[in-house]
Structure formats: C-alpha cells, structure tokens
Design goal:
The protein is α+β, with helices and mostly antiparallel strands. It contains eleven helices and 16 strands. The protein starts with about 20 loop residues before the first helix and ends with a helix.
Length: about 375
Amino acid sequence: MGKDKGYPVGTRSNWFFDEGVRVGSFSHLDEILPHNRLSKAASPLPLAPAGGETKLGYRFENQSWTLDDFLAHQRVTGLLVIKDGTVLFERYQYDRKPSDRFISHSMAKSIVSLAVGMALAEGRITSLDDLISKYVPKLAGSAYGETTIRSALRMSSGVQFSEIYDGKDDLTRFVIARSRDGSISALRQFETREAEQGVRFHYASSETVLLAVLLREVTGTTLSQYLTTRLWQPMGAEADATWTTTADGTEAALGNFNATLRDYGRLGMLLANDGAVGGKQIVPKDYLLDATDWRRQPAAFAPGKATPYFGYGYQFWLYPGEKRRFALLGVYGQSIFVDPELKLVMVVTAAAKNANVGKESFAFERGAVWRGIVDTYGR
C-alpha cells in the first residue's frame, strides 16, 4: 500500500491501478491532474461534536463487531458518521488527515445529477424527456444525442458500453478517446443501441459525461463554477473541493471530484434534509425525491430489478425496503449512505483491493456496518 515509502502520490499513468500509490493518489489527485476548484463557504456549516465517540456496532459473518473492527478489517482511509448534524464517529487511517481531499470516484455522478436538477428548476432545461441533441447540436444524429435526459440520468440509453475496470473495456477506450479528441467525439464513437432506451438499467460512465456536456451547453460555464455558488458554498463547505478536467475543459464528471471527509458529510446531510440547509432549499426537493426514491422509478429500475440488490434513480443507488434510503457509490470503496428519516449519514473513503468491491468482503462488511448503524437508531 506504499507505507514504507510514505504513501507516495502516483502519476497520470499509474494512479488508478497501482496499489503502491493508491492511498497517496486517492487523497492527492489534484496534485497529478489539471482541475477546477469549488471555493469553500465564507461561513462553514458547523458540525457539532458528540462529546465522545458513540459506540456503534454491527453483525457480520455471524459475529458482533465494532466500527474499529471494520477499520481493522478493510482498507478504509476515512470513516465518518453524522446524525442530526452531530458527528458520532470520525476516524482516519493510513496517515490520512482531515484536511486531505479524498477522491469521489463515481460518487461524482450523483453531484452531476444535482446540477441537472438545478438547471431544470432554473428553466435552462425545459423537460427531462427532451433529447440531448436539442441542447447539444453537435450530438445530433448520434445514439447518445438521440437519448433523452431522463434516460441518461437512469443510465438507460440502451447504447452498448462495457465497464469492468480491466484496462481493456469500453470505459478505457472512451477515456482515451475523450482525452485525445474531446467529449463530443468520444461520445459519438458509441453508436450501437442494443436495447430500447428507458427500459433497462445498464451502468455506463459515458452517460454521466453526456450529462456534463449537456450542462456545459445549457449553463455556459463549467460544472465547478455552476455548483460553487449553488451547492458547495450554500451547503457550508469548510474547504475547497477540486474536480479534474479533460483536454476540452469539461470536468471528468464520471468521477475525480475531490473533497474532505467532513464536506462529503455535509453533502450527505444536505441530501438527508431533502436538499435544504437552514430552512433554505438548495436542491429542488421534488427532483431529489425523483432521483432517490425507488417508488418513483419504473419497475425495471426498482431494487432487485436494476441490480440483484440496489435500485437506480437519477445517478443514485436506491436501497430496498419501505424507508427511503440511498447511496452515492464509487469504485475502490468510496461511499456516502443517507437515511433521510433518521437524518443519518455515513461516509467511507477507501483504497480497496478491487475497483469492484463486490469481488471482496469490503462491500458486504460495509453494508453490514450501515445496517447496524441504521438499526441502532431505527428500531
């Protein structure tokens, strides 16, 4: 994991796959790649200390464990639990510290979705059922251009795209093409629609980039500039965030957002409060409910249908069950879990062994931790 070398930061070519630089790179990505900055709030939203860490536990593999056990078992760089604005648990590992900006990976997709909701509320987008090409004429006639905004939000364009993180998949081909030729050209390289749009969930990071291109057109500015004054500062961020950029000036969008653990916690609290802070609505509430409530999705996107466990909303993962619970998830273990009814948030930053943490015990133990915390307060 790079401990003997002081957790070094990698290079443009090795930061994503090389375990030896993973911890350093995942907390200092903006030292490697060009980026835009989201400036912090003038007055950060206070996070009240609990007056000593709360003892929280969970059941996993027929045994009872504590959060310290979870930290000992898994490659967690940061763990934060907040309830009702109070920090119940905060811990860092691998010599990471509160001022470090941790990578989001695909948690960034949910942030892109929030920007879509804001643009819709501002009338920059007329309807989520409009075709992308209405706003991005350069994509007219292409498979992605003839996809609706709603289908892209649900990752249901039907366009063939493989994403398995082996360095040989369509995602790799897309990232290389985007770096070389720009976002529009890269999107136009995928023209095979293997299913009718809007009828099935198929995870494809390209569809988040499609939304980012749309947002650039309708806002006339970068995602970072657009969200600084609409999201990052109004929610009370205590530190600047960064978002890496590609050759054409657009943010990576599919990932590579970087923020402190506590600011991810503030984002989670905003979502737990249905998009409001201090009585002021920051994210349009009805859009957020559409994005995060599985009952508002077509049957094909419900939990157990979109995937064997999760449902999928507008770039958010949706938990099964009667209560509305949802998550922002990224490869190698990045995650924000939200329970709006309990006003409960758990943030995990990590440097797991596999990009797909379902291939190891990480995903299953992390899920058990969240269930244990929810059960503590939800009985």
